[in-house]
Amino acid sequence: MTNWYDPYHQHYPQYRQNSHYVPQPQAQPEGFRQPYGTSFAQFRPIRPSTQDNLILPRGFKYDIVATWGEDMGNGEKFGFNNDFNCYFGKNPNEGLLWVNHEYIGNLGIFVTGYKEEEGAPPRTAEQIAVEKYNVGGSVIHIRKDQGGNWRIVKASTYNRRITANTPINLTGPVKGHAEVGGASQVTGTFGNCSGGKTLWNTAMSGEENYEGIVKDWSENPEVPGLNVTHYGWIVEIDPADPHSTPKKHTALGRFSHENAAMTLGKTGKVVVYSGDDANDQCVYKFVSDGVYKPELGKQNSSLLEKGTLYVADMGATKWVPLDLEKTPKLKEKFKSQAEVLVNTRDAAKLAGGTPLDRPEDLEVHPRDGSVFIALTNNTKHGNYYGQIWRLFEDGNDAESTGFSYEVFAVGGPQSGFASPDNLMFDQVGNLWVTTDISSDKLSQGAYKSFGNNGLFMIPTEGPNKGIAMQFASAPVQAELTGPWLAPDGETLFLSVQHPGEETEDVNNPTSRWPYGDIPRPSVVAISRQ
Ligand code: FEO
Ligand code: CA
Ligand code: CA
Q1: Is residue 106 assigned to a domain?
Q2: Which range has the worst mean pLDDT, 7-21, 99-113, 234-248, 250-264?
Q3: Is residue 45 part of a domain?
Q4: Ligand 2 center to 422 CA (angstroms)
């Protein structure tokens, strides 16, 4: 028997009979993340691999869209460690791609020559300047050429870098408050991990592991220090306006934001789900005060300035408001809403938020509105393999304050995947999952059977519900991040982040992907051959 997985034709006959499938009333509105079908769900799964290559199923190929250090045509260079990708535009062959550049870390040996090790001196001012330039994000105008390969349109005025030096406006309750030193504008963004797309076609970028970066850069006394409260927010960027000033929306809270997944509640309020990627941290959602009005376009951005931030209590199955008036217990510790938001983690614990095993991506199922949560792992108490949970809001309403949930899939040798991180849905409702086994633990001990990190597809209904099928295997010590489909579903953009991350000697890198010399983080476009 063939192991072809063919959801359209074998297991989902309703789609064959009705190719213009009309979403259920509570499905995500059109225009949200990944509203597209894809033929990619039909593939012959690959086996785990330890090869230093990006391995795909038979019949698929990849080409490099952008690579670290690449000239963007305007004197700017594509940043390091690409993570989240988000495509803008209706044309499946040409559009704008927002790309997060997360961190430098141990790969500084290639970027600046700095080696992170016990007793190392502080980075020089020059090294810090190079690091600051290489993080943040990029807007790249990309186009598929005659040969079917995606390239940066170098002459485009849309090409833009956002770095740790870019001025960014604060919005919401914390703007101008003493808790952030009175700032209404801050300098730069970094630690940009995953993100999301707004209904009004802007990108949201999550500032995740900012604390270590602030600390590293503060060790050099010649370099002006950074105020740590200026980081750990969700940043909104408008890729269509190269002159726009990005915004940090403080109403969404300050923690190690993995991503931001937007949907609408039943009365039209905007709801944004976000995980806090650290051991024993919580899951949050923001519900706007105002309602979404499509005719207002990008002015809807102001919805992210005023609303209620909730933390999940998984025992009571309730969303607890992190609001001084709605949860008076918070007054034991906090005097203002700004103080609550700047110290979201502390407020969450005080309010009864449940500490979880590294909640990373949250994504909303495009057909039924359920919320999938990747719990990557928590090795400190023996959860090496992680799980994926599925949360159902009461009344199937994202504005609800109550929910139920189930364990959708469990990592481990029995399922073939471990340490789930980024999630993406295709329109059929298949969940696509990237894995994040730490570079120093890959292919050994508890992780021996998994080989390198990968990308998996898991159907969410039908006879194969919950079964993981591997679609891609990453190069050595890399993580696959930021999966995003083009509007026709026939190109999958994917980041290959931190190949060769455990390299000790630049002359003997542990990965030479993609060009055979040194490891270079790159965004690839995957398509059928
Ligand atoms: Fe940057 Fe949570 O991965
Ligand atoms: Ca991530
Ligand atoms: Ca991760």
Answers
A1: yes
A2: 7-21
A3: yes
A4: 6
4 is a domain residue: no
Contact 355, 381 (CB under 8 A): no
| Within a domain: 19 | no
Give tens-digit pLDDT for 268-305: 999 999 999 999 999 999 999 999 999 999 999 999 99
Over 90: is that where the pLDDT of 35 sits?
A: no
Residue range(s) defining the domain that contains residue 271: 25-528
* This prediction's pTM: 0.94
Count of H helices and E strands in the chain?
A: 6, 30
What's the rounded Cα separation, in Å, for the pair 380 and 345?
Answer: 19
In which element (H, E) is residue 234 found? Answer: strand 234-237
Backbone region of residue 262 per phi and psi (left: phi > 0; alpha: psi in -120 to 50; beta: other values): beta
Ligand 1 contact via 208 beta carbon (within 6 Å): yes
Average pLDDT over residues 59-68: 97
Instruction: Give the nearest ligand 1 atom to 256 CA.
Output: 2
Which ligand 1 atom is nearest residue 191's CA?
1
Task: Provide the Cα torsion 395, 398, 400, 405; round to 10°.
Answer: 70
Q: Is 236 in the pocket of ligand 1 (CB under 6 A)?
A: no
Say if ligand 1 is within 6 A of residue 277 CB: yes
HSE-up of residue 85 (Cα within 13 Å, Cβ side):
31
What is 75-107 written as a DSSP string? S-B--SSEEEEEEESS-TTEEEEEEEE---GGG
Residue 153: CATH number of its domain:
2.120.10.30
- Residues 6 or more apart whose CB falls under 8 angstroms from that of 466 comprise 408, 409, 458, 459, 460
Atom 1 in ligand 1: residue holding the nearest Cα: 193
Model confidence pLDDT, tens digit, residues 401-420? 999 999 999 999 999 999 99
> Is there an atom of ligand 1 within 6 Å of 360 CB?
yes
**H-assigned helices in 311-445:** 337-342, 344-350
Distance between alpha carbon 501 and the CA centroid of its chain, in Å? 19
- For 130-200, strand residue ranges (E) read 136-144, 150-152, 160-162, 167-171, 185-187, 192-197
Is the CB of residue 442 less than 8 Å from the CB of residue 51? no
Smallest CA separation from ligand 1 atom 3, residue: 193
Give the chain's domain count.
Answer: 1
Residue 480 phi, psi dihedral angles, 5° rounding: -90, 130
Of 239, 247, 240, 126, the closest CA to residue 189 belongs to 247
DSSP E strands: which ranges in 355-446? 356-357, 359-364, 371-375, 387-393, 403-410, 420-425, 431-435
| Residues 494, 480: Cα–Cα separation, whole Å | 7
